[in-house]
Amino acid sequence: MTIDGLLAEAVAGLTATSDSPRLDAELLLAETLGRNRTWLRTWPEVTVEAPLATHFREQVARRAAGEPVAYLLGRTGFHAIDLAVTPATLIPRPETEELVERALELGGAAGADRARVLDIGTGSGAIALALAAARPNWTVTATDNSSAALAVAAANAAELGLERVELHAGDLFAGLTGPWELIVSNPPYIAADDPHLGAGDVGFEPRGALAAGPDGLDCLRRLAAEGPAHLVPGGWLLVEHGWDQGAAVPDLFTEAGLAEVATHRDLAGQERFTEGRRP
């Protein structure tokens, strides 16, 4: 079958389950053929060899069953870097790129050109590696309690030439010394009984990186309570949280003694990030 025919077939099969069936189909076929999407559009009449067509159809079937494209490809773009991702890690999302942008601003304000930064719950290494790539003079440490996730982060660091990022296995601040000018985290923040945990891409992602107690605030409470002691005076704590936690998280930060507490909206207009400064 030709490229055009395979894509049409795939789009028809994905329309019921994907919000972007054409994009998904093109990404999967480009990966199968070792080409890019522009090449697919330039040569739609090219015939695809049977083994490759079979592999592509298998990938489409997995996508139709709900499996995320990023896991099928094994990679995703994030900020200015490309990352390997596996079912051991979350798939980095666009709103977390906004968290990185704010972290770059705060890290520079707190530590000038040589900030010391800690990324809690790094997963694939997305935040830590994006910061290290953007700020070569920063000292970046990343921690996670999942050895499988840290293995992915280590592979990403090596591929990007960012081995200077220190990876640490442990729960939140356990075993860390510090202090840091900036602590940043995209922690678990979904309520354990939230029905969205079983829907769409989220249903395939590691639950431990998503759910945090009955109200989704368990990890955020600990970050707020323990974080200030690991900051230099004037250092910042910055976290991502749920769209409906824009009132609760600032209260946690204020109760922990942080100053200049502020919540920012993401590009969709949702309250998504909260920051606070150690006096």
TrEMBL record:
InterPro entries in alphabetical order = DNA_methylase_N6_adenine_CS (IPR002052), HemK-like (IPR004556), N5-glutamine_MTase (IPR050320), PrmC_N (IPR040758), RF_methyltr_PrmC (IPR019874), SAM-dependent_MTases_sf (IPR029063), Small_mtfrase_dom (IPR007848)
Q: Which UniProt keywords apply?
A: Methyltransferase, S-adenosyl-L-methionine, Transferase
Q: PROSITE patterns, from UniProt?
A: N6_MTASE (PS00092)
UniProt-recorded Gene Ontology molecular function terms: nucleic acid binding; peptide chain release factor N(5)-glutamine methyltransferase activity
Residue span(s) of domain Methyltransferase small: 114-192
Q: Which GO terms describe its biological process?
A: methylation
Q: Which CDD domains match?
A: AdoMet_MTases (cd02440)
Q: Where is the Release factor glutamine methyltransferase N-terminal domain?
A: 6-74
**The reaction(s) this protein catalyses:** L-glutaminyl-[peptide chain release factor] + S-adenosyl-L-methionine = N(5)-methyl-L-glutaminyl-[peptide chain release factor] + S-adenosyl-L-homocysteine + H(+)
EC number(s): the record gives 2.1.1.297
Query: Where is S-adenosyl-L-methionine bound in this sequence?
Result: 121-125, 144, 186
Q: Which Pfam families match?
A: MTS, PrmC_N
Keyword Plastid in record: no
List of residues binding substrate: 186-189
Indicate yes or no for the key word S-adenosyl-L-methionine: yes
Protein task: Methylates the class 1 translation termination release factors RF1/PrfA and RF2/PrfB on the glutamine residue of the universally conserved GGQ motif.
What HAMAP family does this protein map onto?
A: RF_methyltr_PrmC
Family under the similarity heading:
Belongs to the protein N5-glutamine methyltransferase family. PrmC subfamily.
Q: Which NCBIfam families does this entry report, sorted A to Z?
A: hemK_fam, RF_mod_PrmC
- Name this polypeptide is given: Release factor glutamine methyltransferase
Q: Which species is the source of this protein?
A: Thiohalospira halophila DSM 15071
Task: Give the gene symbol.
Answer: prmC
